[in-house]
Structures are given as structure tokens and as C-alpha cells.
Amino acid sequence: MAHSRHYLMCRPDYFAVEYAINPWMDPSAGADAATAVHQWSRLKDAYEELGHKVSLIDPIEGLPDMVFAANGALVVGGRVYGARFATPERAAEGPAYLRWFTANGYEPVMEPTETNEGEGDFLALDEVILAGTGFRTAITAHKEAQEFLGRPVVTLHLVDPRYYHLDTALFSIDGRNVAYYPGAFSRGSQEVLRRMFPDAVLASADDAAVLGLNAVSDGHNVVVNVEAGELALDLKRRGLNVIPVDLSELRKAGGGPKCCTLEIRA
């Protein structure tokens, strides 16, 4: 069943690939901001056509990755756990997103002491929060988030540098079940996922390689990268409505639909 969601997004007016902080980024290849804005706008339109609310944070010149709003915070039950980025190139984004939440009346808001990249490595389900570590988010941030949010946090270890954030390798289908690519996780974490989600959708290496798992679901409608054809078919077989989008320009920086989308959970 679809549920109305509230998303925070950031228009990619200053999008560029000026540095390389993940395997997807190649500054010599560059990126086109106008194309990125067009593709991003289609994603925003898709959310609004589904009846979801979209709020916007103003982009800041000099922060080309600010479009990836999911990394800006984790919001559960109206409580805002801020981000503290692992790389200096994105460090200013954490305070910028916290300022937006404070200015818009959200409380409590926590400025973290531990390194974490928001919903990039945290996924809130109905009863637990899945949390990635291995490349960006410190495992100590999992404990900090659990204490602040009052939700149990399950740690998952990422082992493939292409899938440097949890949201590049796993997404929530409906709050109780997930889709994921096993090869992105350590053996122990694969076993945890098998036990927790015996009915999960398992993505192929090919679909993972086009960031097909960087998807957004409202419980019935799933917004997914257009290139992830096999995954789309698997989701349709489950009775889900798949909405393909083209975010190929933003993928040049390692981003997809979910990277562009921070869910505000009241």
C-alpha cells in the first residue's frame, strides 16, 4: 500500500564533478549541470505526481554534491540526527542541512559528534534502523543515532567500494522488507540480511552496477533508475508499480533517486 511521504530535495544548480571521493567520480569526464537539473526536475515531478510533498533546500555555490540530500540528515519521529561528512569536500553540507531543519521548526535537532552521512548509511524501517559502515559512516555513529532516536540500530558492513553507502546497495520496499545486492556486504552481514528479510528481493550485479538499488519506494510505487531492467521486473512480479527515471548525469557522481531524496519522517 502506498503512503504519502515528505521529501527534502536540493536543486543541482551547482552540480559538477570536480573531485573524486568515490569510484564513480571522474573529474576529467566532467558533468553537465543543465542536464542534471533537467533529470532532477523529472524526479521531483514524479514524486509530486504520486501525491508526495517535496520541500526544497537552497543549493550553495561551491557545494556540487549538495543535490544528494539523503546524506544531509536522518529524520525519525520528527527528531533530526545531523550529518558529519567523512570527506572535507562535503563537510559544509552537514551544517547547511541542520540550519534548514532548525529554520523550519524541527526539534530536537542533534549535531553529531561521530562521522556519518545521514540516510546514505541509515535506513529507517518500521521497527529498526539499518546502518551501513565500512567506507563513510563510523560504527560509533550507529550507537549515537540509536541513543538519540530511541530505535534499535542494526549494523551492516559494506565491502565493495562501488557501494560506499548503504543506500547504493539496499532500499526499503515497504518498511518491513527490502531489496539488496548481496555482493556489497560482508558474509556476516549477508547472513543478518537473510535472517531478517527471508523474502527480500535480491538484485543482480548488473542492476547494482547502474545503482538500481538507489531507489525510493512509498510501499507500492518504486522510483528506480531506468537501466535496472531485471530489478524492475522482479518488483513488478511482487505487485509493485515501477516508475523508471533517468538520472545518468547525477550517476557520474555516484548518485541516483535515493541520493537526491531525504525523507522527513514525522
The averaged pLDDT comes out at 98
Distance between the termini: 19 Å
The topology string of helices and strands comes to: EHEEEHEEEHEEEHEHEEHEE
Shape category: globular
Return the structural class.
alpha/beta
Give me the Rg, rounded: 17 Å
* Widest beta sheet: strand line-up: 2-1-15
**Approximately how much beta-strand content do the residues carry?**
15-25%
The overall strand count is: 15
What's the number of helices? 6
Largest sheet: 3 strands, mixed
Helix content: 10-25%
Q: Which stretches are poorly predicted, pLDDT < 50 over at least 5 residues?
A: none
Short key terms for the protein model shown above:
alpha/beta, three-stranded mixed beta sheet, 15 strands, Amidinotransferase
List the helices and strands and how they pair.
Layout: E1 6-9, H1 33-49, E2 53-56, E3 73-76, E4 79-82, H2 93-103, E5 109-110, E6 122-124, E7 129-133, H3 139-149, E8 153-157, E9 170-172, E10 178-180, H4 187-196, E11 201-202, H5 205-208, E12 216-217, E13 221-225, H6 229-237, E14 241-245, E15 262-263
Parallel strand pairs: 1-2, 4-5, 7-8, 10-11, 13-14
Antiparallel strand pairs: 1-15, 3-4, 6-7, 9-10, 12-13
What does the model show?
This is Amidinotransferase. The protein has helices spanning 33-49, 93-103, 139-149, 187-196, 205-208, 229-237; strands at residues 6-9, 53-56, 73-76, 79-82, 109-110, 122-124, 129-133, 153-157, 170-172, 178-180, 201-202, 216-217, 221-225, 241-245, 262-263. It is α/β, with parallel strands linked by helices. The strands form 5 sheets. A 3-stranded mixed sheet has the order 2-1-15, with helices on one face. A 3-stranded mixed sheet has the order 3-4-5, sandwiched between helices. The protein is globular, with a radius of gyration of 17 Å. The mean pLDDT is 98.
